[in-house]
Amino acid sequence: MLKNKWSLLALINSVLIILLTGFILYKFSNSSEKIVYVDNNKLFEEFRMTKEMKKIGEKEFNKKKANLDSLYLEIQREDLSKEIKEIMMKEFVSKRDDFDQFNQSFAIEESEKIWLRIASYSKEFSKENNYKIIVGSNDKRNVLFADESLDVTRKLLEYVNKKYAGL
Questions:
Q1: Which of 82, 144, 146, 164 has a Cα at 20 to 30 A from 59?
Q2: Which CA distances in Å does 30 have to 132, 148, 154, 155?
Q3: Per-residue confidence at 149, pLDDT binned at 50, 70, 90?
Q4: Which candidate, 106, 116, 119, places its Cα nearest to that of 38?
Q5: For position 147, what pLDDT does the model report?
Q6: Could you list the residue ranges that cross the membrane (predicted)?
Q7: Using CA atoms, how far apart are residues 135 and 80, in angstroms rounded to an integer?
């Protein structure tokens, strides 16, 4: 008789565990909050702010490079004295160092500003769409598998570009 009670109790516990597990899975799968992912590279490269900052950077780069090139051509003149060439060469080296520093710092500083703006817009986007997490991935290397229906890159990109444009 005791054995039958334990068997019945084990059966009831098993059924309750199965029902509870089913309920939890049902609730999780029907939740309006989701985990989604975006392609970081695509998001960054196609963001309007990135394109604008690249144009600004290219203008500044070309201006500085043109100054360097013209100074280099000046140094190549044969009618300059050795002393003048040495002074100009020092100036050239200094300007080239400034140019190299500009290239490095501009890219780093502007990328940081862009990512801060994307993060801000992404937070708003997540709230509006009931996303719990947006995982950033570089060509899906950080995510071993993700269903394509969870890729919201295009949707987020449209959102951040509209926000950036003030819409």
A1: 164
A2: 14, 18, 24, 21
A3: confident
A4: 119
A5: 73
A6: 6-26
A7: 61
CB atoms closer than 10 angstroms to residue 123: 11
Alpha carbon distance 118, 110 (integer Å) = 12
* Structure-block tokens of residue 72: 């280099």
- Interatomic CA distance for residues 64 and 59, integer angstroms: 9
Which DSSP symbol is given to 79? T
Length of the chain in terms of residues written: 167
Output the CATH code of domain 29-164. Answer: 3.30.910.20
Three-state secondary structure call for residue 167: coil
* Helices 48-75 + 82-129 axis angle, to 10: 180
- Taking only the tens place, the pLDDT of each residue in 65-119 is 999 999 898 888 888 888 988 898 999 999 999 988 988 888 889 999 999 999 9
Q: What is the pLDDT of residue 155?
A: 92
Tokens of 124: 């708003």
